[in-house]
Amino acid sequence: MSLDLVGKPQFDLLSTTGKTLAKVNKETFTKCKMEGTCLVDGNLLNLSTSNNKFEVVNTKKYPYGIGAAGAPLMPFSSIAVNNLELGTTVFIKELDGYKLPNDNKHNGCVRVDDKGWSLNEEPIDYDGEVELAHFVLLRSVGRGAFGKVRVVQHRNTKSMYALKYINKLKCIKMRAVENIISERRLLEAIDFPFIVNLRYAFQDDENLFMVLDLMLGGDLRFHLERYGKLKEEWVQFYVAEIALSLDYLHSKNIVHRDLKPDNVLLDENGHAHITDFNIAVRYSEKKLPSAVAGSMAYMAPEVLKKKGYTSSVDWWSLGVLAYELVFGKRPFKGKTNDTLSYSIQNDPLEFPDDAHTLVSEECIDCIKALMNRDPTQRLGCGQDGMYRLTAHPWFQDVSWNELARKAVQAPFIPDAKKPNFDATHELEELL
To answer: Which Pfam families match (predicted)?
Structure first.
């Protein structure tokens, strides 16, 4: 499909600090919902032509932003795609006092089709290697140690995903390159309904990108902070679904090592999924992991002993997670890492005074069984570990076959009308 020009040639290049970023005929301006905004190829760009300034304007109905050499445009609001109307014309116009070169490259316009997309002179190649241009970049929903996470839509299939940015320089500075490579290789080898699975992976000069299953229900940490503590019915459901994931991972000799509320995401239907495999490892009986890895409050005693451990550590972490979700606090405390480590290894497991009024005896017994300091006796561990867990009285009403098919309705459905994540992630896009 050819570009439908109106009156003037197309704007040729968008650049910042002399580096070409995109051609307008590849990906053009998209309408945003906030005055003084502009979005190009899903990114906030510094628009410049030599040292000149220009203004981006269009029809009176849809104002755009002002860009200058070396200065970013005002940022866009949360969701800024598919909102151009049929026939909307977008112009590039010079500001008063700043003249653009008269070479017919720096003024122009584009039109959009009936779906709100710009009419591309050069269609995107979906048969070649996956790249960022294959995705529409939407709202930011999180930020990790190496970059942000945002919602994206595949332009061809229209499927929605989460795009995880991993800045290469940050990886090098934090000496995390091996972990990132290991995480990608591990994710390529697994695929399970209750795991946040990897769907695509690619890179550019600055970032590595992981395209993952989209989970819009928020993480359990978010909901725990919102409600203070969660209903036993909810926690039983999450623990059961997480147990299915752990059983799958352990069958492949993979230990997650960082199971906690922050790393369990809910989908829009309320089902629980394990995420963040940054420190997950494969192990064998001949070569057990021994590094102290993970978040200390959720570490099993055998991790802290540094004498080698197996997948048993994940079942302990599941017990800590269950305890925290139902009681709103963790079972062991310490003002320093040393005192916390000592408490985990030596202090008796105690429950709140009102525990029996908050949850059932079966729930308390299950948590105790998951947090048995002897890994050979711990619930979930050993060859019959999953069988013993499914047979525990706390799960007597769970239909495990139905649960595995996601045929059981979740007891809590996240509110789709509210952001189930920290809104400051979106706010950062506006600053």
So the answer is: Pkinase
